[in-house]
Automatic annotation (TrEMBL):
PANTHER family assigned to the protein according to its UniProt record, in alphabetical order: D,D-DIPEPTIDE TRANSPORT ATP-BINDING PROTEIN DDPF-RELATED, TRANSPORT ATP-BINDING PROTEIN
Species, as recorded: Candidatus Alectryocaccomicrobium excrementavium
Listed transmembrane segments: none
SMART domains the record matches: AAA
Occurrences of domain ABC transporter (ranges): 8-254
Protein name, as recorded: ATP-binding cassette domain-containing protein
Entry keyword ATP-binding: yes
SUPFAM superfamilies, per the entry: P-loop containing nucleoside triphosphate hydrolases
Amino acid sequence: MTQSNTLVEVKNLKQYFPVTTGFLKTKMLKAVDDVSFTIGRSETLGLVGESGCGKTTVGRTLLHLYKPTGGEVWFDGKKVDAHSMSEFRRRAQMVFQDPYSSLNPRMTVGDIVAEPIDVHHLCKTPKEREDRVHELLKTVGISGEQAARYAHEFSGGQRQRIGIARALASKPEFIVCDEPVSALDVSIQAQVINMMEDLQAQFGLSYLFIAHDLSVVKHISNRIAVMYLGKMVELAPSKELYRHAAHPYSVSLLSAVPMPDPEKARNAQRIVLEGDVPSPLNMPSGCSFRTRCRQATARCAQECPALREIDPGHFVACHNV
């Protein structure tokens, strides 16, 4: 990806949280440990992995909702710091996982959607603000007349649409989508995903799409990154990952995706991982996946594998590939 086509660049991002382990004792929990990736203009990067692997923390740290422990975030060629934060906050937004808790129950839907407009002073008159709110609600499939209602009067799918309208209010170029459909019914999931693809085409948006449902990620993503215990273990174009997953963890994840064809499902080999996920507070030496990996060798216990390119655009962190 050329430099001019890159919108977001994350370099060696780290997010450590102090955890109390005893009387006056604290230990650092490495939620995100040395993660790097880029996202191009109008591209969707899918981020997948088990619950607790650090996906959401990557998204929140990238947007500086958490102050990064280490690393850098570059946006449109500029480093994100105290000087560029205000502009970055306008141009980068987030859609949260839970449509029930992410909307203020005391505010009308119109005021919720208008909040970024007010914060960034994007409308000069109340009439202009009202027209903009109605336009945004219409864009996500909700009539402008419903702007005076409250969040509890809407269904889960409608609430997530309101959350997306709020994210679009500041005319962003980049949106972090934190499992935006995982709390919705399957039929509603498809509608919301299709709407997000239409919005991407209409406004030229870039997405970091965080999810644990690999079939959803396959549908919407150009490239997919796989995370395990705070580290990125594989990064590849979407079709390439599904055809030739190289990391043992990615292979196991893909084997668990349900197949609509009963014949194929019967013949497919399900790869069940052995053992439990290690505690992030007591990580195994070397490769963090080695305690559950059938291919682990002595080298895996001594040396943490670096993310290396095995094919054009296909990166894997494994000694045995």
